[in-house]
Structures are given as structure tokens and as C-alpha cells.
Design a protein that fits this description.
This protein is mainly β and 348 residues long. It has helices at residues 2-13, 321-324; strands spanning 27-33, 43-48, 78-82, 85-92, 128-129, 136-142, 158-165, 178-181, 195-196, 204-205, 211-217, 229-232, 251-252, 272-280, 289-292, 296-302, 307-313, 317-320, 329-337, 345-347.
């Protein structure tokens, strides 16, 4: 008798309501998966204390990522028991998956599933655990501009690939985080046939932590081209939390090869004459040079956009990166026409 009172008290304390302890099937945990690897959550698994005698009448609403209208299911799920595990309920949302890129839970949020208010399920609202791995949302290729400096040593000829993920990754070595392959039928569904690519650097991360900038040796034909597919390596070494493998859905690489830029022509003050990625050598040698006829201004920026150096020229002459003395690493260079109009700017 004493034990029965304790059990009933615990159920009431959990906000389930009055019910016989032996009738309510308490939830142990709930989690979500992206079963087809397309980057969208499509199945919610609810684990109960004991096997289910029958399926619930419904599981709705279900919220994923955060509790708000736009993150709730739009159609009722197909319900079933997990094969061989009668205590695991599967709510299948494959007909209308949750939105792309929702692979984590923001701080303070507790997405949940809603069970029926009968004697067995007692209106329980189990919180859904973060159990989906990251997905690629964007990939932009910035090839080395051979027109800018054809004589640059080979070790500085590197292409840039910037990828955007749905959330930051955690690993000890990011250099093999990506795989690549050719598009098939216009899409990127060929993870199985993709090949691992090794970057020349440990990538830098953007301010939010989910954008990564990789450098790859520049070759013609290169190992990666605009229009190819990139994938996150799903070998288990690259996850947000252990066990959350990335989606196998790939992303088409955007970008194009640069055109020859020999002259910026006439420009007004503030006009952007060009922007180029350069690597500053550790020995201080210039990576690029600019010949100018009129006034101009050169800004050096880090890959995150912060200005690292600014140099101005007022008349005919030659500018090199040795004058700006950028720290070793990767920079963006912007050339802007000066107030007196730049009659001619040449990069070589």
C-alpha cells in the first residue's frame, strides 16, 4: 500500500494527472532522426517504460528545434512500433518533414511531442533530444586568380572553399571534413561514390562558428570545381555531438573561375575596382603587385572581413604587399578608385 501511494504521488508531481500507476506508460526518452540523410528531421522515436499494447490515437503537435508555430508538424505522422522493440513508438513525418537545417536545439528551447490525454499516455509531453547531425547549407568556391599573379610560387597557389553548415562541428582534425563528387542528374545524392579531399589548412571558422574556410592546392584540372558536389564526411569523426552523423545530402558548389583583370579603367571615388584573395608569405615577400596611374586605395582584410591594413597612392607608381606588411595568412585585397579617379589599375 505504501509503495502504491508513492508511485501515484510521483505521477501527480510530474503533472500527468490522477491515474492508476499501473496504467500510465511513462516515457523514458524521445529523439529525432533524419532517416534519409536529406538534412530534414523526419522521424521521432519515443521510448516507453514498458511495451505498448496499442498505438496512441495521435502524436500531435510535435515541435522540433524550438517551440513555435513554424516549427510544428504540418501533417499527422504515420505511427508504428519499432521492429523488435514494442516499447518504442515511431512517428514518421516523411510525408512532410521538418524544415531544412534544423539540426540542433537553441539554448533555452525544449521541443517536445504531445501524447493523448488517455489513461495510458496521460498527456505526456516528452522533450525531444538533439539527435540529428549537421547538414551542408552552402558551398562557395573561390579559385586562385592566376591572372593576378602568374609567377606566385606554387605553395601559395591555393583555391578557397567556404562552406556553411547548420551548426558547428567538433573534431580534432578538420582537414578531411569534406568529400567531393560530380553531380548526377542535377543533384548531389552520390555520397557513396564521393572521394575524400584533404585541405591544405585547418579551416578558419566564421563568427557564428558554422562557416568554414578551407584552402586546397590549386591545380588544373583541380580536385574541386564550381558545379561539383561537396559532402560532409560521415565516417563518425565529424559531428556536433557524439553519435550525430552529418547528413549524406551534398551541396552544389557555387562560384566561377576568375576572368583576366588587367585594367580597372576609369572609376569614381569609392568604386570597387577589384577584390582578390591573396596569401601573405611568412618571409614578407609581396604576393601581388599593383601598378597604378591615378589615385587609389588598397584595403587588406582578413577572411572574416576585418581591415588589417590600408594603403593609399596618389600618382603613377607601383604598390606591393610588402608596403602594407600584412601578417602571414590569408587576406582579401580590395582596390578602390581614389578621389582623383584612377585612370588605370593593373594587377599582375
Amino acid at each position: 500500500m505504501h509503495e502504491t501511494k508513492i508511485s501515484a504521488y510521483l505521477i501527480l508531481a510530474c503533472g500527468i494527472g490522477f491515474a492508476a500507476a499501473q496504467d500510465v506508460n511513462l516515457v523514458k526518452q524521445a529523439y529525432i532522426k533524419d532517416s534519409d540523410g536529406d538534412g530534414r528531421g523526419d522521424k521521432v522515436f519515443i521510448v516507453f517504460t514498458r511495451p505498448l499494447d496499442a498505438l496512441p490515437a495521435s502524436v500531435s503537435p510535435v515541435y522540433w528545434n524550438r517551440v513555435e508555430a513554424g516549427n510544428a508538424n504540418t501533417t499527422p505522422p504515420v505511427l508504428s512500433m519499432l521492429a523488435g522493440q514494442a516499447n518504442v513508438l515511431v512517428a514518421d513525418f516523411a510525408a512532410a518533414p521538418f524544415r531544412m537545417g534544423l539540426t540542433s536545439i537553441p539554448n533555452g528551447e525544449q521541443p517536445y511531442a504531445t501524447l493523448p490525454g488517455d489513461a495510458i499516455f496521460a498527456s505526456q509531453k516528452p522533450v525531444i533530444m538533439d539527435s540529428i547531425g549537421p547538414v551542408l547549407l552552402s558551398a562557395v568556391f573561390q579559385p586562385f586568380n592566376t591572372y593576378a599573379d602568374p609567377d606566385l610560387p606554387a605553395q601559395y597557389r591555393e583555391d578557397t572553399l567556404v562552406v556553411g553548415l547548420s551548426e558547428p562541428m567538433k573534431t580534432s582534425d578538420f582537414k578531411q571534413m569534406l568529400r567531393t563528387g560530380k553531380r548526377e542528374n542535377g543533384g548531389c545524392e552520390g555520397y557513396v561514390d564521393s572521394k575524400s579531399i584533404v585541405s591544405a589548412n585547418s579551416p578558419s571558422q566564421g563568427i557564428g562558428g558554422s562557416d568554414y574556410t578551407f584552402l586546397f592546392p590549386s591545380r588544373q584540372p583541380g580536385p574541386l570545381l564550381a558545379g561539383d558536389c561537396v559532402y560532409l564526411n560521415a565516417n563518425g569523426l565529424y559531428t556536433d555531438i557524439p553519435g550525430n552523423l552529418p547528413a549524406t545530402r551534398g551541396q552544389v558548389v557555387e562560384g566561377s573561375f576568375p576572368q583576366a583583370i588587367r585594367s580597372a579603367g576609369k572609376g569614381r571615388r569609392g568604386d570597387l575596382a577589384g577584390q582578390f584573395r591573396i596569401r601573405s608569405a611568412s618571409d614578407g615577400e609581396p604576393a601581388l603587385q599593383v601598378r597604378h596611374q591615378g589615385a587609389f586605395r588598397v584595403l587588406l582584410r582578413s577572411m572574416q572581413g576585418a581591415v588589417t591594413a590600408s594603403v593609399q597612392g596618389v600618382g603613377p607608381g607601383m604598390f606591393s604587399f610588402g608596403q602594407a606588411k600584412p601578417v602571414p595568412g590569408i587576406h582579401l585585397m580590395e582596390i578602390r578608385a581614389g578621389k582623383d579617379r584612377a585612370e588605370r589599375l593593373e594587377m599582375f
